Amino acid sequence: MSERWARTALAAYQRFGLLAYPLLGAYVGWRATRGKEDPQRRRERYGFAGQLRPDTRSLVWVHAASVGETAAVVPLVQRIADPDVAVVMTTGTVTSAALVDDRLKGLVIHQYVPLDMKPSVARFLDHWRPDLAIVAESEIWPMTMLELGRRRIPQVLVNARLSDRSFRRWKAAPSLAEALFENLSHVVAQSDVDGERFHLLGARAVAVAGNLKADTTPPPVDPHALQMMKVAVGSRPVWAAISTHAGEEALAATVHETLKGNHPHLLTVIIPRHVDRADELERELVQRGLIVARRSRGDSLAADTDILLGDTMGEMGLYLRLTEIAFIGKSLTGQGGQNPLEAAMLGTAILSGRYVQNFRDAYHRLLTNGAARLVQDAASLCEQVDQLLSETPVRRRMMTAGSATVDEMRGALDRTLQALDPFLRPLRLSGRLDSREKALGAP
């Protein structure tokens, strides 16, 4: 595929964006009615700034798409932001915006990421004038990358990964991939596999630092809420299916029904990845004859409650602390998996389906150390949950191995900061000089 074809494809992408731009208001408005956009801040999606640019010479733009990516870069942002370097942080979802407000309030300026169309991106960059752009994981937006490149603003991809599917797609269009990835000043990859993939697709400078998710703190919890829930649960046997996708909740219900006889008073905790499915899930579970308590309603846990439906945001730390066994979803009926490291940090025995390619390195380490096990279907999931509920020494060995694996994986944050140092050091020096000039009254 030729370079000329790549230029034609990118030009077509830009033209399509310009044609579609006037029609996007209805789409963004529709998303707002479903709670997927903040209706008071819709203009930010078109690049209109919600705040003034800080009175500083140096500014870094950090982008993280959703909750997982945002949580991963929080410690990194905390190390970057200082009196000499301001940070404007963009995210793409309402829930990730809430996470920024909770963990980085007062340290960064939050904006919603502009749509990947030239008018929006140009308007955003004209206002914020970033000196450096840092993007988390696998966010590849052609117009944004090209516009940053045209303005000669360094772009660094951190905690970078490429799924098998994404790699195949980019590999099928090598000239297009190179035309985009050559704009990256540096790629800091999660694993050797990811690093090699970015290099093959045209990224010039690639380093491997590990997974930033291993350097985060465990998900927080309200101690009072946790104590109340533990009292309600009492001595009941508990297992959890977390971050589940369509079809996996039914598998968890089947496991519960099968094991209830062997484990009297069994409580199954189901935390869907998308809480807007909770009404539908409750109907399905009740139709099976199961007694369901929903966290969002504040339902009390009775002795005969079968399922605790964790349909709230930001309480994964609560749910994981109620159990010592967790099945991680998007791995049996879904594809790619979800992050297992939060569960491992809290000393949880981990079960998962085999479709975990988005977290390949983390699962490889967990499996090698005996902290996780893979299951094929409802029957094997049932067998594993049964064993772990029945055999405390086996469960405890897996729990200890999980915590040890996370400790072994730590260090990505320092390695990432080392890779960013050539880009950040000049900005800090510029910021200090600017502050000194203002203190001396220089114009």
Protein described:
44% of the residues are buried. This protein is of the alpha/beta class and 443 residues long. Helix 15 links the parallel strand 13 and strand 14. Helix content is 47%, strand content 14%. Helix 3 crosses helix 18 and helix 5 crosses helix 6. Strands 3-2-1-4-5-6-7 form a seven-stranded parallel β-sheet, with helices on both faces. Strands 10-11-9-8-12-13-14 form a seven-stranded parallel β-sheet. The chain has two domains: 200 residues, 3-Deoxy-D-manno-octulosonic-acid transferase, N-terminal domain (Rossmann fold), CATH 3.40.50; 187 residues, Rossmann fold.
At a glance:
By secondary structure, the chain is α/β, with parallel strands linked by helices.
Provide the descriptors you would attach to this structure in a database record.
single chain; 443 residues; alpha/beta; Rossmann fold; seven-stranded parallel beta sheet
State the strand order across the main sheet: 3-2-1-4-5-6-7
CATH class of the largest domain: Alpha Beta
**Helix content bin:** 40-55%
CATH fold name of the largest domain, please?
Answer: Rossmann fold
Distance between the termini: 53 Å
Q: So how many helices? A: 18
User: How many strands, what sense, and barrel or not for the largest sheet?
Assistant: 7 strands, parallel
Q: Strands, helices and their partners?
A:
Elements: H1 3-20, H2 24-33, E1 59-63, H3 67-80, E2 86-91, H4 94-104, E3 109-112, H5 118-128, E4 132-136, H6 142-150, E5 155-160, H7 164-171, H8 174-181, E6 186-189, H9 192-200, E7 206-208, H10 223-233, E8 238-244, H11 248-259, E9 267-272, H12 278-287, E10 292-294, E11 307-309, H13 316-320, E12 325-328, H14 341-345, E13 349-352, H15 360-368, E14 372-374, H16 378-390, H17 392-409, H18 412-439
Parallel strand pairs: 1-2, 1-4, 2-3, 4-5, 5-6, 6-7, 8-9, 8-12, 9-11, 10-11, 12-13, 13-14
Helix pairs in contact: 1-8, 3-4, 3-18, 5-6, 11-16
